[in-house]
Amino acid sequence: MGFESFQVRLEGSPATHQEAYETIMALDGVARDEDSELTPSWPCFLLKDGRHKIEMELMDKHASISCRFTVCHPPSVDMAFFELVRKLMVALDMNVTICDEVAPEHDHPFTLDQFEEFKAAYAPSIAARRREWKMQFGDRQLAATTAEAHQHIILPHCIPSVEKAG
């Protein structure tokens, strides 16, 4: 996981890889994101709802799903992210784990019954990531994929520093 994104992993489903694939593709606003695919047979997807872009990757034969969004998104992405994670948890009988620093008591997979606890654990973690991002790159908000955040925010911010050093 890069410093520019916030990520969770959904696991523990009895669903097959194909069932998970079909479930993801059936979600409103989701399309394959073949430009992001790095590992053969691990398809990537992009959920776009007009205000947010949330990236997903279906990994392994055991239907493990990585979901992430860039922290340059407006905070409204939180609700869209919760909605997506909850839909996947319900549809595929999955647990969710935060792939970021969390308090020790939150360093575990959350079941659907613990969804409110998941949201409570998420809040300080994403707040810390957003503070770090703003300190480095400022307050500009952009609904962007990881590649777009690199292209439109990170590289333009870093290039003047490289030119000064040269």
Descriptive overview:
- It is a single chain.
- With 166 residues, this protein is an alpha+beta fold.
- The chain has one domain (5-165).
- Helices cover 41% and strands 20% of the residues.
- Strands 2-3-4-5-1-6 form a 6-stranded antiparallel beta sheet, with helices on one face.
- β3 and β4 form a beta hairpin.
- The longest helix has 23 residues, at 115-137.
- The protein is globular.
Assembly form of the protein:
single chain
Structural class: alpha+beta
The main sheet orders its strands as 2-3-4-5-1-6
Q: Counting H and I runs of at least 4 residues, what is the number of helices?
A: 4
Q: In total, how many domains does the architecture comprise? A: 1
Which spans of ≥5 residues are poorly predicted at pLDDT below 50?
none
Q: What series of H and E elements makes up the topology?
A: EHEEEEHEHH
Largest sheet: 6 strands, antiparallel
Global shape: globular
Q: What is the helix fraction of residues, given as a range?
A: 40-55%
Structure summary, number of beta strands: 6
Radius of gyration: 16 Å
Content of β-strand: 15-25%
Mean pLDDT comes to 90
Alpha-carbon distance between the termini? 30 Å
